[in-house]
Amino acid sequence: MVFDGKKLSEKILDSIKSETSSWKKKPFVAVVSIGSDSSSYISQKKKAADFLGFGFRHFNFKPEISSAKFREELNRISKSKKNTSVIVQLPLPENINANVLNVLPVEKDPDLLSDKAVGSFFNGKSVVGPPTPLAIIKILEEGEVEIAGKKAVVFGYGKLVGRFLVPMLLKKGAIVSIIEKGVPKSAVLEISSKADIIVSATGVPNFITADMIKTGAVIIDSGFSAAGSKIAGDVDFDSVKGKASLITPVPGGVGPMGVAMLYQNVAQLFKVFVSDVTSE
User: Fold this and answer.
1) Closest C-alpha to 199, from 239, 128, 145, 242
2) What share of the chain is helix, strand, coil (3-state, %, to 5)?
3) What is the pTM of this model?
């Protein structure tokens, strides 16, 4: 079964629009990026904001910007009362210190990028959850995939997916293994070939191949990268889909679902931290 993430994401966005359409005030989203590599991601987010009637502005900085200057600009954007959610496109260039993300206020951080937002989530005090991991759990639930007692392998332990998804799967009773870059192929095969659920978020095109999975495995592809002139996921889709009981395509799988869950967070933060959303 090829899971249609686009169709489900549209239902979620419709639900958000239904809830927020009567609000007299609407969220305003500021997307911050460095360079031009994230244009496709940003266009998806703008399209969703336009559909929902939310404000949207893209702040793009040149690749040569210093870490100190970027921190200053991000702080300025975050402090603007107009911007009710601030989204920073990852990954940041190597010359930018990741600690700059800590200037994001929890009430404006729908991606949970700051240390404070992460801590709040793991302490059970956050009013929102990490968008892409929430999207993945939603896909598993909609696909009626049993998680408890199943062997799950997560490729990649990044800021947006792995570090949140692993404990979320453990909480649901899965037996979870994490595989990072640099693990020998033989060791990868030993683990992945026995997995009931595989989630990959490495950004390495076509990394997951048919010989790495067992027949009937559930394959969630959260990777996204350019392979020549085409967009590719982490999974070699054509070779794997015949063995998988459920698989998400790229594009059209986790991506649009992640955007939908992100805007669910944008709306929730606005509702909690901006007063009188339903009044003049």
Assistant:
1) 145
2) 40, 15, 40
3) 0.94
